[in-house]
Design a protein that fits this description.
flat, seven-stranded parallel β-sheet, alpha/beta
Length: 818
């Protein structure tokens, strides 16, 4: 019997027509054809204290030349569609995945688009852009691989050999995410084609080290060397500026290099290895004649990879640049989440424009990175400023200088002693209300401020925190040896303590804090690079430990930087270089009162510089690494301090922080979709399930749970919308349920069916409309007491009658809005 294609599902079209056509063209079903490929995790939406995942992006078929080298994407449709109806979706996926060939099919044939001039030539010698083929003539592997080579500029056998080198694969089952795959392939291909300077920009938490490992592995296994010297073994240097970055790298992704790898320590050089990990401080003595890196010949290394390259290598006079200039014959790769582009410093000037950028916004949109919400806390003296009354004395008995002080002064040169307890109590209150065991980083002005903050947090902590562990709250700064020893415990998800890490700069970068759920900004952060690094401490997703989003508690209006286009936009070079110009040296991104980013070149520990003692009674001068004397802090007691206002901010669907109030944002969004109340009611009442309307609103960032959290009222989404957008009186769910009971709605049903509907109404009053629309609710208490779902549905006469009863109940619930 002949099959009518119009009656077949999309799945049938793929299995009966598309796959046979592909395999008949010579493609290997097991090795080169992947079906239903989900390449994102689905964006995480924050709903109050809970989260839900959005839909994953999924390609119907991806064809690969070999593992991790995708070369074509196919979007299938059922036969009721035209053959080319899936091409726009295929092209969108192809662009995201960096694939040259996009194909659409409905089972009758194939519509093919060749991107960026990669198609085969026509009789006139011009590249084909659009092509239609029947089922018997699907493109062969060689045809599409040749398209890939043209698309990537792979034009010699030598380049092709390197570009097709296998990835490292182990038994863990981990496969590169699509963006890592793009970064790895583009970098390996660029190096194969002779590019000397390469910049990769990938948001914190997206696996830069793993990406670097796969790049190095493929070049190393291929035997690639910079000058193609026969018989020479590839030698690679991986540079970082933090000891924890080096040790994490060796223990983590790079462990597969085994005895071919070494860490350069104490400036001891052994030339018998092939992979070298080193702190740049471990290779320099700041004395050209004694610099350890000079024990290597200038052409010893074929490849130098610079991790967190924004920190030092972007500055002409930095120690890193001396190392890079010495090994200038090698290929250099810069890795960073935060490329630095200022009037004086430029990452792209040295490395060139990024070969690939994967932003924080994209990572959140794909569901690989955690979204955040921002709680902005306004303290009266911060918002209004503080001016001492005439003759006001500080704690040392000196007259306080008469001027207006604000957050730029507080805790840096003037301490209002009643301010820090207010901040500490609010932090503790937040944790008590949400998750007392949530890993938290509190960023303070300096180490002395961190000491006072730790003490005030302990004073504000409830007794049970004190009973759980003496390490519940710890100061982790460069001058605190005990605190530094607990950094690994704080980062380790399996170690519950410390819970709260109070720091200045020590944890702002290079610390893989996977389970950090709260970041407190109690420091004046002016550097965009530093701000992005700090936000990056919370962006990792760790589902095993229920880490799917994080909160930023901002006491200093630092989160205004989210509205700066530089926060998650392209890094645009603005540095101008004039002939003979001498540029200032930059060794870190620290603000000028920070001394925690310097590392001891021998031990790898943070350097401790003379600083103010912890919580001093008589402030003493502190010396910065630049040996500039700092003024004594002035301590003032007896100034009334209070919190004036708070505001929670969320991300909108485009990944931008909502800057208006949530109520106003909701009002604008509702009116943009439903111009008046009647339009909304028509949509609501006609919906087969109210859940569909709710989900459509969620796509616009209008989330009931977040509105409920702000309004503090037990309203469901219907009343929230009617009240906020159309100024209607708002009823709570319990009030609506009670109104239904007063109208004797249940009398038309039999006794048992009536009992079921009354239980469903109670469910609505307690939990909302979503729960009563799904038949799964019949499996839970108290509904399960009435029998199995099938038995309950039979009480109404059948499935259709049950569904109609639910719709009638919903009509009664929302009755009375005009």
């Amino acid at each position: 019997m002949e099959v009518n294609k119009k009656d077949l599902s999309e799945r049938d079209i793929i299995s009966k027509f598309i796959l046979p056509s592909i395999t008949n063209a010579g493609w290997n079903l097991d090795a080169q054809i992947r079906e239903e490929v989900s390449f994102t995790d689905g964006r995480i939406f924050v709903k109050g204290k809970k989260t839900v995942r959005g839909e994953r992006k999924r390609a119907d078929i991806i064809l690969s030349y070999k593992p991790n080298l995708p070369i074509a994407v196919i979007e299938a449709k059922d036969n009721k569609h035209y053959v080319s109806d899936g091409i726009q979706q295929a092209l969108a996926y192809a662009e995201t995945l960096d694939i040259p060939v996009a194909i659409s099919s409905n089972g009758d044939g194939f519509s093919i688009r060749y991107r960026k001039g990669c198609g085969p030539q026509n009789t006139a010698g011009e590249p084909i852009v659009v092509e239609e083929r029947d089922l018997e003539h699907f493109p062969t592997i060689d045809e599409i691989w040749n398209c890939y080579k043209r698309y990537k500029g792979i034009d010699t056998p030598e380049v092709e050999t390197i570009a097709t080198q296998d990835y490292f694969v182990d038994n863990s089952g981990y496969k590169p995410r699509y963006y890592q795959q793009i970064a790895i392939n583009r970098t390996v291909e660029a190096i194969a084609k002779g590019q000397d300077r390469i910049l990769l920009v990938m948001a914190t938490g997206t696996g830069k080290t793993y990406t670097a490992f796969q790049i190095i592995w493929r070049l190393w296994k291929n035997g690639w060397t910079k000058n193609k010297e026969p018989g020479k073994t590839p030698r690679i240097l991986f540079l970082a500026d933090r000891e924890n970055l080096i040790s994490q790298t060796k223990r983590g992704d790079f462990k597969h290099f085994k005895d071919k790898m070494t860490i350069v320590r104490h400036k001891q050089i052994d030339k018998a290895y092939e992979i070298y990990l080193a702190l740049y401080q471990g290779l320099t003595n700041y004395d050209e004649d004694a610099d350890a890196y000079r024990e290597f010949s200038p052409d010893f290394f074929d490849l130098v990879v610079v991790d967190e390259c924004h920190r030092g290598s972007a500055a002409d006079n930095s120690a890193w640049r001396k190392i890079l200039d010495y090994f200038k014959s090698a290929t250099h790769i810069g890795l960073t989440a935060t490329p630095k582009e200022t009037k004086d410093i430029s990452s792209s000037e040295y490395f060139g424009d990024p070969i690939y950028t994967y932003s924080l916004k994209q990572g959140i949109d794909d569901g690989f990175l955690a979204p955040y919400k921002v709680l902005r806390v306004g303290i009266d003296v911060d918002l209004e400023g503080w001016r001492p009354e005439k003759g006001k004395l500080d704690k040392s008995g000196n007259v306080v200088e008469d001027r207006v002080y604000n957050t730029k002064d507080f805790d840096r040169n003037l301490v209002l002693e009643d301010r820090t307890p207010i901040v500490a109590r609010r932090i503790v209150e937040f944790l008590k209300q949400n998750d007392p065991m949530a890993k938290t980083i509190v960023f303070c002005i300096d180490q002395e401020h961190a000491s006072r903050m730790r003490d005030e947090l302990w004073k504000a902590a409830p007794p049970e925190w004190h009973e759980k562990s003496d390490e519940y709250i710890m100061r982790i700064t460069s001058d605190d040896k005990e605190g530094r020893l607990k950094v690994d415990d704080f980062k380790n998800p399996e170690k519950p303590y410390p819970v709260i890490a109070v720091t200045s700069k020590l944890l702002s970068t290079g610390s893989d804090t996977k389970t950090c759920k709260l970041i407190v900004l109690e420091s004046n952060i002016g550097s965009m690079t530093e701000f992005k690094q700090i936000i990056g401490r919370g962006t990792r997703v760790y589902e095993e430990y229920d880490k799917l989003f994080f909160t930023i508690m901002d006491f200093r209006n630092v989160t205004n930087l989210f509205s700066d286009p530089a926060f998650d936009g392209e890094a645009i070079r603005i540095k101008e270089v004039k002939p003979g110009e001498n540029l200032p040296t930059e060794t870190s991104d620290a603000s000028d009162d920070n001394s925690e980013n310097e590392i001891d070149p021998v031990t790898g520990d943070p350097v401790t510089f003379p600083e103010q003692p912890a919580y001093p009674t008589q402030p003493t001068p502190a010396i910065t690494p630049e040996v500039h004397e700092k003024k004594d802090k002035v301590y003032v007691a007896g100034v009334s301090v209070s919190i004036l206002n708070e505001r929670m901010q969320y991300l909108d669907p485009s990944g931008k922080l909502i800057t208006t109030t949530l109520r106003e944002y909701t009002r604008q969004g509702i009116l943009g979709k439903y111009r008046d109340l009647q339009t909304f009611l028509q949509e609501w009442n006609s919906a087969e399930k109210k859940k569909a309307v709710v989900e459509e609103l969620e796509k616009q960032g209008i989330i009931a749970e977040n509105l409920q959290e702000e309004t503090k009222r037990d309203l469901d989404i219907f009343d929230l919308i009617c009240h906020i957008a159309y100024d209607q009186p708002a009823l709570t769910r319990k009030e609506r349920a009670e109104n239904v009971r007063k109208r004797n709605f249940f009398t038309k049903y039999g006794e048992k069916a009536r009992a079921v509907l009354e239980a469903l109404l109670d469910k609505y009053a307690d939990e909302g409309i979503d729960n009563i629309e799904e038949t799964t609710v019949l499996k839970v208490d108290p509904l399960s007491k009435f029998g199995t779902p099938i038995e309950i549905i039979k009480l109404f006469g059948g499935k259709l009658e049950y569904q109609q009863a639910i719709r009638d109940l919903e009509t009664e619930i929302y009755r009375g809005v005009a």
